[in-house]
Design a protein that fits this description.
The chain is built from 22 helices and 21 strands. By secondary structure, the chain is α/β, with parallel strands linked by helices. Helix 9 packs across helix 20, helix 12 packs parallel to helix 13 and helix 20 crosses helix 22. The chain starts with a strand and ends in a 6-residue tail after the last helix. The relative contact order is 0.09.
Length: 542
């Protein structure tokens, strides 16, 4: 799903108009598609009673057309006109002529009729304001919207393109804005909807086609997308019937210390759950007895250690064990000891180590980027303390021989970039894109609505935010999943996108299974990775 600014959307519509798809036809296409979504999702309701809140602009027009189409499908339709439309508006007259009811706000001084209509409706269609809105909200709009606050429970609310009262560029939102259960976006999702506080008001997001030609110049220039199930399904590697464990790669996970024993286990288990063929955990010997028996599928590499953490000389041991390794995750539970900093420096200075042919028999599955060559050195994924250690190594990004994946939360991104956390959060997309380009590596900026940025400018948003993932260890789960996908032959950006999507879906599934978001642990999320995969794609793909 494409993600655009309001300006980009205006350009798209202008280009389509120049190609012969007039604005009136775009509106008719939008309204008809909106009606189809509503009827498909809510047509099972017993009374099929819908109330449309109508503004004076294009969103009001889209809504009126949708209501007319729903009348044909047997719905009881009421249109409440909040902002005056042209006298003898044919879209309004069409509602009346087909048996619908139209009420103007001028006829309802105390909003008594509006309250009655809210109480008797199954669906509210919010079509008052569109993408051009800027705060503040005028009283003529805020007053009728405040009526909704009198109700303890409300019907399902569907926003047309955006909830009325949202700035579709900045995400700023009027306090009277209705919380939608579903927002139906026309042609593309507007960027402000994925910013806070707007994201809290949009509910589920759907995109409908309004007939814009796909070869419009502005469409061709869009590099930003919102990730969905179909996108991830196409990315995931095949699972052929004649596969063996070597088909799906070998992940090495480097980390662990006496203070953070469990992080490596979380990452290793996640890499297996996402489909890795073999996982090797390289850990300081001091924690081996504490964790080795907890994941019988894992193989272990014992590293030299100092003060309970990996020592500088461990890099030689890692290099001696790169046989068949296709992805290296470094960071879970690593710590920031002086010796471990030396280890990180040594690790970045690896010479290229050829991978045996048996380890790359799956390369026919690789999805190769135009500007991304295949190297013999395993792909790195950096997480947690590895990111903090990188920040102390000048020119670290130039020392990596191929594109890596970095998975910082805002605090780690601030450390890596020298920015303050609030500066990172103020422009999450811009910061992720700028530094992905500067460093030449994929950046996964974690948080509510995670952003994945590629050095070539391609950017993806995960349209999910849940406090179920706000607990220790869930980041280790994510990095393990991404490493597991990289190890199976996916290019860095695709692995990051798919891993972040499946991780978020697993978090949502864990919360749904337990019926709450308070006590979800990282282990609970690992337990739902299989469900997330099943939800996203069938198990018999070939």
């Amino acid at each position: 799903m494409n993600l655009v600014t309001v300006s980009e959307m205006i350009t798209l519509e202008s280009e389509a108009n120049e190609r012969g798809l007039g604005y009136e036809q775009m509106m008719r296409n939008a309204g008809s598609a909106l009606a189809e979504v509503i009827h498909e999702r809510y047509g099972h309701t017993q009374s099929r009673n819908i109330l449309g809140l109508i503004g004076s602009g294009n969103n009001g027009g889209d809504t009126l057309i949708a209501l007319s189409e729903l009348i044909k499908k047997g719905w009881i339709v009421n249109a409440y006109v909040i902002k005056k439309r042209k006298k003898n508006d044919p879209l309004v007259l069409n509602i009346i002529n087909n048996g619908g009811r139209v009420i103007c706000v001028d006829e309802d001084g105390s909003y008594i009729k509006l309250q009655e209509l809210i109480g008797s409706s199954d669906i509210i269609l919010d079509g008052i304001l569109g993408t051009g809105f800027k705060l503040p909200l005028r009283k003529e709009i805020s007053a009728p919207l405040q009526v909704f606050s009198k109700f303890d429970t409300l019907p399902e609310i569907v926003a047309v393109d955006c909830p009325s009262g949202v700035d579709c560029d900045t995400g700023e939102t009027a306090e009277e804005t209705l919380h939608a259960d579903l927002t139906v976006c026309m042609a593309a999702i507007k960027k402000g909807l994925l910013k806070f506080p707007a994201f809290e008001y949009v509910g589920e997001i759907a995109v409908v086609d309004i007939g814009l030609p796909k070869n419009l110049p502005e469409f061709m220039n869009i590099q930003t997308s919102v990730v969905d199930q179909g996108m991830v399904r196409k990315m995931l590697p095949a699972r052929p019937l004649d596969a063996h464990k070597g088909t799906f790669g070998t992940c090495m996970i480097i980390g662990g210390s006496t203070n953070y024993c469990g992080a490596v286990l979380l990452s290793a288990a996640s890499a297996y759950r996402i489909g890795a063929g073999l996982v090797r955990a390289a850990i300081p010997g001091v924690i081996y007895d504490a964790i080795a028996g907890q994941l019988p599928e894992c193989t272990w590499i014992i590293l030299p250690h100092s003060a309970g953490a990996i020592s500088g000389s461990a890099s030689a041991v890692v290099q001696d064990n790169l046989d068949r390794v296709t992805a290296i995750l470094i960071g879970p539970g690593l710590g920031q000891e002086k010796e471990t900093q030396e280890f990180m420096k040594n690790l970045l200075q690896f010479e290229e180590t050829p991978i045996k042919k048996t380890a790359i028999g799956f390369l026919g599955q690789l999805k190769k980027a135009e500007n991304e060559e295949l190297h013999s050195q395993p792909t790195f994924v950096f997480d947690a303390d590895a990111l903090n250690l990188l920040s102390n190594i000048g020119g670290w990004h130039q020392m990596l021989k191929q594109r890596a994946v970095l998975t910082p939360h805002p605090g780690e991104m601030a450390t890596l970039t020298g920015l303050r956390v609030d500066e990172v959060q103020k422009d999450r997309e811009g910061v992720a894109k700028d530094f992905a380009a500067k460093w030449g590596h994929v950046v996964v900026l974690k948080g509510a609505v995670t952003i994945i940025a590629s050095p070539d400018g391609e950017t993806a948003f995960i349209p999910i935010a849940t406090p179920a993932l706000a607990s220790a260890g869930t980041g280790d789960v994510l990095s393990g999943m991404i490493a597991g996908l990289v190890g199976q032959g996916m290019i860095a950006f695709d692995a990051a996108v798919a891993g972040a999507w499946l991780h978020a879906r697993a978090g949502v599934a864990a919360a749904k299974k337990q019926g709450q978001v308070i006590s979800i642990t990282a282990s609970d999320v690992i337990g739902e990775i299989s469900f997330a995969l099943k939800e996203t794609t069938s198990m018999n793909r070939s």
